[in-house]
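Feature request disguised as a bug: please show the residue count (433) next to OmpR/PhoB-type domain-containing protein in the output. Example input:
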Amino acid sequence: MSKSDASREGEASDDTTLLDAEVARLLEEGGLGRSPTLERLLRFLHQRARENQPPKEIEIADAVFDRGDADMSSDASVRVHIHRLRRKLDDYYAGPAQNRPWRLHLPKGSYLLGLTPLAEEEAPPPAVEPPTIAAPRPRRILPVLMAAAALVAGLAGGYWYGGITPLSRMRDTPFWHPITASDRPATIILGDYYIFGERTPDGTVDRMVREFSVNSAQDLQGFKDMGGDPQGRFVDLGLTYLPVGVGPAIRAISPILAGDKAALQVEPISQMDAQAPKNPLVYLGYISGLGALRTPVFQGSRFTVGDSYDELIDRVSGMHYMGSSHLEETNEPGQDYALIASFRAFNGNRVIAIAGTRDAALMAAAEFVARPATLAQLDSIAAHDQSFEALVAIPSLKNVGLDARLLGAWPRKDPTWAAQRPDKFPDALSAKP
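Example output, currently without the count:
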């Protein structure tokens, strides 16, 4: 063996030792949280990196997910979990491991795990291109059980992200401080949807109906009084439902809100008294589910809703942002959007609204404000308890959101809270901010 060959072999051995040590340290410190799947994925990628053999997607599907016969053109499992692993690594090295000389790295377009100096900053991602305006599409929302209160109660710990990020730091950020510093516990408002039954002539309820202008039993009675039910078939069943993205959104933010004060309150928007919010509020839901909060959110905003609930229009720039990924039967990523608004109610209580066009947008926006690395992008606009709003774009695949990207953040006015809510939503586009 020549001296040069021996030297290269020694360098490779040193690199492998560093890689082994970094993987072991991350797993020991809980950097991946409590996900056995992500741990299996990391261990497999680690082994292939030691062999200097970049794995193919089908090899990962076989070794990690036991799905060697999967059609990679239609099965996004590997890509979604690789994305989640990259995100966990970013969180870990932005938090407790930020002073390490090296970090684990999965370069874009490759599955070969490696080490890179932590001081080296990656090139910023390309700017989001404004989307073209698509035709409005009908809504499709899946109901979920309202077990939110139990979920919140189980997440009120002092650490999160697998035990590595002190929550006190998140609670003191400019974004969350107006909520967490209040002497009153926050109320999480969930964007639920009221549904009612339709009876057959013999009195049997054989169909559930969702009408966007009917959001409560009182609305239903008014709807009937105005001639909306000429045959008298509609009946209140006391039922509402939630989008599936609400659960993960609660899980993302509730540890930040659950401090030493009284237990968090969870309330559906259909039961909220919008005239007198006694506590700080955090809304989680679709833009279409804002209900009684829709006037406060859009009054004083630069945005309005377009011809469907999936479209936001910037009335200052004239830009249209149309979410489109949720109905596309394609393997190409689509794009969704979320509006993040923070303002004061008339009595001084802080209101934060995290409202997405669809599930992918809602979940990704909640994670955006629950992760130190991304939340820091709002520090400047949120400073000094300023009221503001931000728009984020979310590339998504089969309604699974990837990283939310900040498109912009702007100061906004506090609402007067006195305006009557519109009869129909979306609102007229002629309203001024």
